[in-house]
Amino acid sequence: PSPQRTPVLFQAGASGAGKAFAAGHAECVFISTPLKSATKAYVKEIRERAAAAGRDPHKILIYAMATIITDETDAKARAKYEEYQRYASYDGALVLMSGWTGIDFGSYAPTDTVKKVRTNAIVSAVEHLSGGDKVWTIEELAKWGGIGGMGPLFVGSASTVADLLQEWVEETDVDGFNLAYALAHETFADVIGHLVPELQRRGVYPTAYREGTLREKLFGDGPLLPASHPAARYRDIEAVKRADAARHEPQRVPA
Prior knowledge:
- Strands 1, 2, 3, 4 and 5 form a 5-stranded parallel beta sheet that branches.
- Helix content is 46%, strand content 11%.
- Helix 1 (16-25) packs across helix 2 (36-52) and helix 4 crosses helix 6 (138-145).
- The protein is an alpha/beta fold.
- It has helices spanning 16-25, 36-52, 74-87, 90-101, 123-130, 138-145, 158-172, 186-201, 214-219, 237-248, and strands at residues 10-12, 28-31, 61-71, 153-157, 176-180.
């Protein structure tokens, strides 16, 4: 076993069942929400559910998917974004979004709007696109889905994007971002070269890692799951077995 014993527990999925599981078990959560309002509502619900389950709501780190297109200036970043768009496929983007949602977007006109339907695909994807502050047309959906996927898209200089990221953190209570890419591996190289130094100058991005395991780096505590986590009871597996056997033992009825 590693020094952590239990690996850091990540969860992804924003349906009702996913939220309930995350609140009870996850240490880190990946979410994909296109709008700030949806992200804020999701984070709030997860923290409330975690508190109700007896967990510290801020011991769950929530990372929002985001795509960042950045360069030395806003103009250069915008030009890069427009170049990427020239390679995006309208039909290909709708196929991708249809696969995620279970909705055949190709059967709709570009000016039609996304409506909520029951599917067997990613439930939260349908909810986020059909609810909230924005009404999506099929054309807007294809343009947005062609670059970045299900999260927000930030385009601009390092200073502009840093402002946007800090705004999202302050207004939604999200802990960080899970980066998607427009072009591998150029997107990540641009973030490292332009954005990370700007965030470090602002004191909101580390310049060095903490010592220890991943759990210690993330939370600053010891390497093991905290005693408040439901999995902690399994450290003494024999005690768990005895408790389970006692619960299933037939009750004796006095003669």
